[in-house]
Specification:
seven-stranded mixed β-sheet; 11 strands; four-stranded antiparallel β-sheet; globular; mainly beta; 112 residues
Amino acid sequence: QVHLVESGGGLVQPGGSLRLSCAASGFTFDDYAVGWFRQAPGKEREGISCISKSDGGTYYSGSIKGRFTMSRDNAKNMVYLQMISLKPEDTAVYYCNTPGFWGQGTQVTVSS
């Protein structure tokens, strides 16, 4: 059974940093690309980053490019999202995704 479990969210001041983690299990992790999505209150879920299954190639949406870095550790079945220079508009529930499966999400709140 596929499981994706996000962690690392919390309350941070503007300009601060957080590192989100996603632990994957129940499938051959290094056979799949993985994505990070987020959903802010009252808004649709949006894809913000993804990483390829093997060579670590990444994609970032314009809203987070240059501030967020996605990585994966295939030996540990983990993906990470390092977030710096956080802004109030980054406040959202952040989700890990692999095709057909979602984690439960982790809340990130950026506020002074």
